[in-house]
Structure formats: structure tokens, C-alpha cells
Amino acid sequence: MTRLSIITAVHNQLEMNRWFVEHLQRCTRLPSELIIIDNASTDGSAEFFESVGAKVIRNAQNFSYPYTQNQGIAAAQGDWLAFLNNDIVVPPDWDSRLVANAELHGLDALTVCGIERIETPEATHALRRRWKRASLPVRFFGAKQPWLGLSHRWMYGDWERFCRERAEQFEGLVIEGYVGNSVLMNRRAIDRIGLWDERIQAADADLFLRAKKRAVEVGDIRPLHIALDVFVHHYIRVTLRARPPAFADATRLIPIDRKWSAAELARLSADAS
């Protein structure tokens, strides 16, 4: 049985997609399948993913994040599902480390750490300042080679050594919260939390809130946690220059504060940031 289903939605960004797959192939350890939801790419991205053996679901239009992730779930064969952005660089053994953390701490859903959040607010702030400088090549010249690689080298130097040292320093350590570019869930989590809410584009925050609410009120699942020994680099907003078309399902999307009251947001998100 396939142990891991990796689900990723894309619209164009062929060079970013090549960079993503290069690291994914090098660093994934578990038996896995790659499921790509292609949102009407016109630059050969769908064909590229098919050429590397991915299962490609082709949409005729550009759909929102939660809608595409649910498409991926419907096609997935794995008992663990990894929901990954395409604008990331995974570290060696990212998948086996995440599963090990889940099993160690009794977690059914967890995320990686990264520029968005690491072990302390102070460390996160310093890392974000560093990326602001290192991201200059990509911000000025776009998400293309060699700029993707140059920014990445400026940021980390030897990427594998950086990841190895973090893994050794923080092995098996988790904190409550989430970093939304890379989420791992098992089938039990989906059964209890449910599919992604297709009304909420900020789906990672909504997932955290739903898991936390279930943990507090029912107690049969733990809140999302961040694995501090699995650091994933995220190019964050620099890739928005691709300017994808409007979502085909935009009319049904609502702000997260229309689903969750201010009191609920305050109560449930206290440990999320």
C-alpha cells in the first residue's frame, strides 16, 4: 500500500515546479505518490508533472486551495496525506521525520516549521529579516533559475547541513501551532476533522481552528503541532508575481471571520502564532 500521498495544486510556474520536484525526489523516503491538481496551466507544467510519474488532475479553470486539496484527497491512496505548496524546498527525510513525530506525540495532523515560525518569536523574527535580504534575486528577477537557487544559497549556505543541524538540535520536539505550506494528516484526522472547508481560502488557519475545537470539545484528537526538526523553506509571496486567474469558485469563498466569531478565534488561536 502507498504510505504517503503528496497533494499539490499548481497554476503555471514551470521553473518553480521543476525546483520543487528536484528536491522532493531527492529528499522523500517513504513509498509515495505525487498527485498534482493542475489549474489550467498553459506553460507545460501539467505535462512536466506527468513526465515525472505524477498523477495529474487537470482542471479547466483555476480553483481555490481547499477545493483542489479535496480533489487530491478523493484520488489519494496513501494512509498519510501531505498537502504541500509548490513554492517550497523540502529537507532530507522530511516525510519520515514528520511521521516519526506524529507517532511519538500521538498526533494525527501536524506541520513543518519554517520562515513563518520556528521555536521562538525572536528566532522567527531574525529568520524573516534574513530572508528579506536573501530573497532579493527572486523578488527582482522572478521565480526562475538561477534566482531560486541563488536566494536559497544566500539564505542557508549548505542547505543539507542547515537541515541536519536543525534536525539534531530539535529532534522529536514539537510546539502547538501550524505553518500552512506543508501539512501532514492521516486518515483518522480526516475522519474526525473533515475535509478542507471549500468556503475558506485561508484553509490552514481554518484547519487549525477545527482541530483545536475538536480537541477541546470532544478530545479524540490533538491540536495541530509544528515539528521543529523538519524545516521547509517557503518562497512565500515572491511567487505571487505569477498572477494566476481569478478562482472559478470565488463566489462561494468567505472570510474566516464569517465562519468563526471573534470570541472563538481568540479562544482557539491563542497558541497558533
Describe the 3D structure.
The chain is an alpha/beta fold. The protein has a single domain, classed as Spore Coat Polysaccharide Biosynthesis Protein SpsA, Chain A, CATH 3.90.550.10. The protein has twelve helices and ten strands. The strands form two sheets. Strands 3-2-1-4-8-6-9-7 form an eight-stranded mixed β-sheet, sandwiched between helices. The protein has a two-stranded antiparallel sheet with strand order 5-10. Helix 5 packs antiparallel against helix 7. It is globular, with a radius of gyration of 18 Å. 43% of the residues are buried. The model has no long low-confidence stretch (mean pLDDT 95).
- Which range best describes the helical content: under 10%, 10-25%, 25-40%, 40-55%, 55-70% or over 70%? 40-55%
CATH superfamily: Spore Coat Polysaccharide Biosynthesis Protein SpsA, Chain A
Query: Quick one: how many beta strands?
Result: 10
Give the CA-based shape. globular
Mean pLDDT, to the nearest integer, reads 95
**SS content category:** alpha/beta
- Sketch the topology as an H/E string, one letter per element: EHEHEHEEHEHHHHEEHHEEHH
The tally of domains stands at 1
Unreliable stretches (pLDDT < 50, length at least 5) are none
How much of the residues is beta strand, in percent? Answer: 15-25%
Put simply, the count of helices is: 12
CATH C-level class is Alpha Beta
Distance between the termini: 36 Å
Major sheet: size, sense and barrel closure? Answer: 8 strands, mixed
Do you know the CATH topology? Spore Coat Polysaccharide Biosynthesis Protein SpsA, Chain A
Based on CA atoms alone, the radius of gyration comes out at 18 Å
Strand order, biggest sheet?
3-2-1-4-8-6-9-7
**What's the CATH architecture?**
Alpha-Beta Complex
